[in-house]
TrEMBL record:
Keywords in alphabetical order: Membrane, Transmembrane, Transmembrane helix, Transport
Compartment(s) of residence: Membrane
Protein name: Solute carrier family 25 member 44
Membrane topology label: Multi-pass membrane protein
Solcar repeats: 26-107, 114-223, 233-316
An example Gene Ontology CC term for this record: membrane
Family from the record: Belongs to the mitochondrial carrier (TC 2.A.29) family.
GO biological process: branched-chain amino acid catabolic process
GO molecular function: branched-chain amino acid transmembrane transporter activity
Amino acid sequence: MAATMVESPPPHLITTIEWSMMDKSKFFPLYTLSSFTVRCALYPLTLVKTQIQVQRKKEAYKGVTDAITKIYQNEGISGLYRGFWLSSFQIISGVFYITTYEGVKHELGKYDISPKVKSFIGGGCASMVGQTVIVPFDVLSQHLMVLGLAKGRPGATRNPKLNPLGLDLDKRLSKAALAREVALRVYRVHGPLGYYRGYAASLAAYVPNSALWWALYTAYQDELLKLSPAWISHLFIQCVAGTLGGFTTTILTNPLDIVRARLQVEGVGSMRQVFKELWREEGLIGLYAKGLSARLAQSACFSFSIILGYETIKRFSVNDEFRTRVRW
């Protein structure tokens, strides 16, 4: 009598690679390299966004394209990377950020909590840790970014809005010397707490942004998986979900990001005072729309690139026992 062959069912495919499934010795170096590459490529959009948010009405730039064109004409490619090396310290906070996010999600996985809620809480906690590490570098970097608005403009040296530290912009300083001068001036003008100027505003802007982005990323991914044919790449679906999440959170949190930028650069007033000032200058539409196109462009590129790098690295770092079950 011939033996009956019974086919075992195919293993369940993994759509979300959890923290415990990865080899951390592969993940961290690859994540750091990916993060630096993305930030390097997209830094000009960050700089343009900050300058548009800080300017009064449209005194310097009419929009993203106008800003990039004028900065390039006046300062060359280096003008688009003003303050980049200080800003690149965000890579350090990024390691703390992603470790906190994955760690919190891993701990919450022990309880019966929906993936969206886990992502929301993990994203919020990650942002609190990341902002605590990066705000001093962010403050210095944004001062350097905004100096580009003042460069070459009559009376800019004495304009407290464009040059709140009173730097002598006619001096020909190297980038390192200028960064050192900014750091010293922040300390002299505001004391040690000056490096955390706008910290509360940063938390108010970035914690909800991060929590919403991760929760929406998870929600959009789940819905797109239901709607998409099986042959569509799961990695592509994740990139689209990340981009949609970025668009949504950018529109919802743009006013908070403008307030944060103003507080960190000008260093005066409270969040409430800055909101009132923006309301007087820009009105309701301006409060939501100021720098929005720059933020949307930055968010779309950043969200897509970060998820592409992050989810690809997770696939390369997954332990061998799970590798065959991971869907690309």
